[in-house]
Write a structure and sequence with these properties.
Shape: flat
Radius of gyration: 24 Å
Helix content: under 10%
Structural class: mainly beta
Distance between the termini: 60 Å
Number of helices: 1
Strand content: over 45%
Length: about 140
């Protein structure tokens, strides 16, 4: 005969994880104490194309790379932050950060890579990704 057990929905470890990091800051310091923000996205389906707006502030457009593989889009950026304050010949403070951020997401349909366009202005990367036309299935004749 099996033993009778009382069900406790709050005994799961998953419930504790919900509140564990509730008060932690959104921007978490990485190695060296410098915070990097993840790439924020807006994706809009407009007239047969997806328009993606990604916030990538403080990055040169030469350091941003976008790859499309079927319906998966990956945005990678090399972040180089340098600031130096001088007073005369004596350096009072010098800070540097080098690293990379990326964001990858999957769209519901495949993308036409040839017609895709990218524009970077004022820290916002805008991708225009036309949908690939759906290939109609072929009906087989049974002999």
């Amino acid at each position: 005969m099996t033993a009778l057990q009382v069900y406790d929905p709050f005994a799961d470890a998953g419930f504790e994880d919900i509140f564990r990091n509730f008060f932690r800051p959104v921007r978490e310091p990485r190695a060296g104490g410098v915070a990097t923000a993840p790439i924020k996205l807006d994706v809009v389906d407009k007239n047969g194309t997806f328009v993606v707006r990604a916030e990538v502030p403080g990055v040169s457009k030469d350091d941003i790379h976008v790859t499309i593989d079927g319906n998966q889009v990956t945005i990678t950026a090399e972040v180089k932050r340098e600031s130096e304050q001088k007073e005369g010949e004596r350096v009072l403070r010098s800070e540097r950060y080098y690293g990379s951020v990326y964001r990858s997401f999957v769209l519901p349909v495949e993308i036409d890579q040839e017609g895709s366009q990218a524009k970077y202005e004022n820290g916002v990367l805008e991708l225009t990704l036309p949908k690939r036309p759906a290939v109609a299935g072929r009906k087989l004749a049974i002999k």
